[in-house]
């Protein structure tokens, strides 16, 4: 999939043909299944776009403490616009932090979390420029059984933005964390644990929007053409029927290059014909925008229903239909998708943080006909999961942070042998 773009980006029929092998550097590899501790971290805050405009952003991250006996953690994740009028703003990157519990004699289950996020991205005209986003934070965290609530402050500098109206400030941030494997207080026995053998589905998807009559572009014109998206879904089953899903998509056809969305939610998969056909229904919420589609602040809702049809051992076809709504914008559509799923469970998932460098050819031009910078840097997050002893499936996403194409992003799905 292709993510957020702006005027100053790759032509649809052009690609960068020279890629630095040295720049394609794996910075960090970790097998989450054997992590000493891990958690999901969610935050919300208002980032000032100018003195008169704020953009509400949702942050989603996966953190691990990779060093035995240490409170240092590493995280992968990103931020996206959820409220305001900048739907389509996305960044992705990594966090280095320190999370430790205070003495129980002070307050039981109280922790301090300090960290720094660094990533790349952009979109929706919020912070044009190179795309680099930094975010230091200082949070207080109170553990409540199987989750924790967070309150603190953060700061979001964009060092190479050309947005002269931006006022870098320190602002409040709220959030929650959900330990997935022993990220809790070592003195407390948590019921949350990672179930290594539960089923997971990896689903590459082709999705199609058929816009409703009231669907509009940000520029005010009506959306009249169908839009095709390419996407990726990761579904993790709690039991034989209930699952949670994480999904990403980018526009492929329909004149909306730059549109992207990130969703999460829950689904139910109930068998209709034994070992053959199941009914599948899910509800996902998330962030979307770009490509001149008016999603308002970026928040979207997407209910879907369909079938899960077995075609071979571990392989299924998933046709589904539903609706997509942007409550704060002028966009809704009838939505269909067709996915090919592979079911696994025992293979360890490997996460990678990568840097990719492009050296554009002399013949490459921006949409406006201009020249690119001599070098463009992208920060990426990828994962791969073992299918058998020789094959792994992988997915990755990259966002630019240097080279004056800050809204450029890309997503890839493939097979590793």
Please render the helix and strand layout as text.
Layout: E1 19-31, E2 38-50, E3 53-64, E4 72-83, E5 90-101, E6 110-122, E7 132-144, E8 147-155, E9 170-181, E10 200-211, E11 227-237, E12 242-253, E13 260-273, E14 277-289, E15 299-312, E16 315-326, E17 331-344, E18 349-358, E19 376-386, E20 392-402, E21 409-416
Antiparallel strand pairs: 1-18, 2-3, 2-9, 3-4, 4-5, 5-6, 6-7, 7-8, 8-9, 10-11, 10-17, 11-12, 12-13, 13-14, 14-15, 15-16, 16-17, 18-19, 19-20, 20-21
What does this structure look like?
The chain has about 425 residues and is an all-beta fold. It has two domains: about 30-180, Porin (Beta Barrel), CATH 2.40.160; about 200-345, Porin, CATH 2.40.160. It is about 0% helix and about 60% strand. It has no helices and 21 strands. The protein has strands spanning about 20-30, 40-50, 55-65, 70-85, 90-100, 110-120, 130-145, 145-155, 170-180, 200-210, 225-235, 240-255, 260-275, 275-290, 300-310, 315-325, 330-345, 350-360, 375-385, 390-400, 410-415. Strands 2-3-4-5-6-7-8-9 form an eight-stranded antiparallel beta barrel. Strands 10-11-12-13-14-15-16-17 form an eight-stranded antiparallel barrel. Strands 1-18-19-20-21 form a five-stranded antiparallel β-sheet, with no helix packed on it. Strand 19 (about 375-385) and strand 20 form a beta hairpin. It is globular and about 55 Å long.
Using brief descriptors, characterize the structure shown.
single chain, 417 residues, eight-stranded antiparallel barrel, Porin, mainly beta, disordered N terminus, 21 strands
């Amino acid at each position: 999939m292709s993510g957020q773009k702006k005027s100053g980006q790759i032509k649809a029929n052009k690609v960068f043909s020279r890629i630095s092998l040295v720049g394609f550097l794996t910075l960090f590899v970790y097998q989450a299944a054997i992590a000493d501790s891990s958690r999901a971290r969610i935050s919300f805050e208002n980032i000032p776009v100018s003195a008169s405009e704020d953009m509400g952003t949702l942050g989603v991250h996966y953190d691990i403490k990779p060093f035995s006996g240490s409170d240092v953690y590493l995280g992968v994740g990103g931020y996206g616009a959820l409220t305001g009028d900048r739907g389509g703003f996305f960044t992705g990157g990594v966090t280095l932090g320190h999370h430790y519990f205070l003495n129980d004699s002070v307050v039981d289950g109280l922790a301090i979390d300090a960290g720094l996020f660094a990533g790349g991205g952009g979109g929706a005209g919020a912070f044009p420029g190179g795309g680099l986003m930094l975010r230091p934070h200082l949070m207080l965290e109170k553990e409540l059984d199987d989750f924790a609530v967070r309150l603190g402050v953060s700061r979001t500098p964009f060092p190479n933005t050309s947005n002269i109206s931006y006022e870098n400030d320190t602002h409040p941030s709220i959030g929650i964390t959900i330990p997935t494997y022993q990220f809790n207080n070592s003195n407390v026995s948590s019921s949350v644990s990672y179930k290594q053998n539960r089923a997971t589905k990896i689903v590459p998807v082709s999705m199609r929007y058929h816009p409703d009559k009231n669907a509009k572009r940000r520029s005010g014109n009506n959306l009249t053409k169908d839009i095709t998206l390419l996407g990726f879904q990761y579904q993790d089953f709690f039991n034989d029927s209930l699952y949670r899903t994480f999904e990403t998509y980018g526009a492929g056809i329909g004149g909306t290059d730059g549109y992207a969305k990130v969703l999460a939610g829950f689904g139910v998969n109930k068998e209709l014909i034994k070992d053959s056909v199941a009914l599948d229904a899910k509800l996902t919420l998330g962030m979307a925008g770009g490509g001149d589609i008016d999603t308002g602040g970026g928040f979207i809702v997407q209910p879907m229903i369909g079938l899960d049809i077995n075609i071979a051992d571990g392989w299924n076809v998933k046709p589904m239909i539903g609706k997509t709504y942007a409550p704060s914008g002028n966009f809704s559509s009838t939505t269909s998708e067709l996915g090919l799923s592979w079911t696994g469970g025992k293979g360890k998932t490997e996460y990678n943080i990568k840097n990719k460098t492009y050296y554009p050819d002399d013949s490459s031009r921006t949409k406006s006909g201009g020249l690119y910078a001599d070098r463009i840097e992208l920060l990426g997050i990828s994962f791969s999961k073992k299918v058998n002893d020789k094959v792994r499936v992988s997915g990755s996403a990259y966002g630019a942070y240097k080279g004056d194409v800050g809204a450029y992003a890309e997503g890839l799905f493939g097979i590793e042998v």
